[in-house]
């Protein structure tokens, strides 16, 4: 248990002549609200003037990395607190939370390794005749079954019964029918937050795709079933969300006006979405993000939304109560209470308090109106109990004008400065109401510039009283045109006023304490540029401005096709415009054949840059009709993939083994009878080597002698005569 209270420690006493009353008195400088003065417009009941932090649940209640909490909505169970634990994929139920008869129970569903894996948020829904009130959970998981499998992204919100006879009780035997869950849809891995809308409709923070998604389970499929085909899923792609691993981005729905509030954790902001407003719905059934059969899968654009606040340190928890929106900041342990405008789309005032949390996440306003939160690091649920006498000055807060300051309690003249002396907010004119805050406190200030008339060089000028450097910008930082460089003449007007501006573009030159990150001119010598958001040396202003960055939000070095875009290979061409992103010697491919336009010595040069080609062995990137790798230009036989060269130019190929292969590849020849492509001097088709008469085209083989011919004929005649005579006998 701890307490939060503020005391004013430093006092100063000065003897001064009060010009209005002509007496000596004690004076001090004014204090701010942050130093302990509780003002009506910043008062929030849950914070009170101060508060104690009371531990409600801890590791003894089986809390293990708790991330969210919510009270059961049933009137008969209104003090029943449900807490989801990320480390154990479980729920801790605290009965009679915060009361003397408090007790807790820890429930783990048998199938929690999928349906509640790395649970990040919980939201109660509508009453169900069998299951009491239903509730839904978000799972910061890509579906690994607690590390037992590879991520398959089959993950999304799960619907559960809150009936204590069903949740983590039904179907719990080993290998049981999917545990006690009653529905689940699977289009959103890494779920970071969830909020109930109406019936079985829930809003979901999709951390994987960085979008807001609306899930309508329609009729639950009951325990032990798995039919999701009636589910309706709508992706709100305009609502971009940024996930911070391990830090949920909780959501809260205002059911009175349909405004949904989201803690956009990674962007450090709170956004609102008008869920009742118009939008354009597009059917995306069959999209790669769809993981299962559905009754509807669509994308919604053009919805009304806005930023409620920004610059927060990892906002996580969120709760809404009687027009006040509470937001926890995981990065610094603070909670801010925002008093919402009537339409819920803006804030009129807010107050921030610090807690002792190590890692504050989920928030909830309990049945008694007090604020509760989970501390994930310390495994605690904490209730904030506001004080009734914050400053322990023995003056009731209802009567204490200064309930946050034990040294002060009254203000006789009602001017906001205390009657009690010796503090930084003590009234230097306690009997005369005044508004001065500079020099003297609580004295007459005719022009309302905070300076007492006795010290004001310009008592009738309500905005300024000094301009040390005479540049037209006043020294008063809260007045009109305050000078950010009060001792140096300058005429900047945009990032800061009254500072040197060499190029006269309205943005100040950088200085030791004010760089480009704070808004100073990134191009102090160029009046057409002043911002360089990605710090790559190219300006945010578009052409024709000096060095206009074509990718102003991404640091890059490209200079050829685009300026300031990513150029991984350093060839001057942006990755977007570089066909050869990893090759600095090539960047364009006019004929889209995979060979670059730049000639050798560039890698893979295209010898036919304006003609698509597939040659790979000679003249890369030129047409190769027969696909043998040799370009048609150099291929002696462009229609035959087995042949490609004819070294002697006789039309017969150097390659062996075909009817057109040259038997004499090194010698021009026309022979075609005995050998192909060899020397044939007489042109009779027979090679000189095989031609007995190489100079006589009329013959090629050697003739028999005449005598041998006569003898052969005689023998033949004799043989015939003898045969005939033999047959007659």
What's a quick, concise take on this entry?
The protein has 729 residues and is mainly beta. The protein contains two helices and 29 strands. 4% of the residues lie in helices and 23% in strands.
Describe the structure.
Helix content is 4%, strand content 23%. Mean pLDDT is 88; it is low at 1-40. Among the domains are: 1-38 and 390-465, no CATH class; 73-315, Neuraminidase; 645-729, no CATH class. A hairpin with a 4-residue loop joins β18 (259-264) and β19 (269-274). The termini are far apart. The protein is mainly beta. The protein is built from 2 helices and 29 strands. The strands form 7 sheets. A 6-stranded mixed β-sheet has the order 13-14-15-16-21-20, with no helix packed on it. Strands 1-4-29-28-27 form a 5-stranded antiparallel β-sheet, with no helix packed on it. The chain has helices at 112-115, 706-728; strands spanning 2-3, 14-18, 23-27, 51-57, 66-71, 81-85, 90-95, 103-107, 119-128, 132-139, 158-161, 183-184, 191-196, 201-206, 211-216, 232-240, 251-254, 259-264, 269-274, 280-283, 296-301, 305-309, 315-321, 324-329, 334-340, 347-354, 360-365, 371-375, 380-386.
* Poorly predicted parts: 1-40
What percent of residues adopt helix (DSSP H or I)? under 10%
Q: What structural class is derived from the secondary structure elements? A: mainly beta
Number of DSSP helical runs: 2
Distance from first to last alpha carbon: 151 Å
CATH-derived architecture of the domain at 73-315: 6 Propeller
Radius of gyration of CA atoms, rounded to a whole number: 45 Å
The proportion of residues in beta strands is: 15-25%
Tertiary shape? elongated
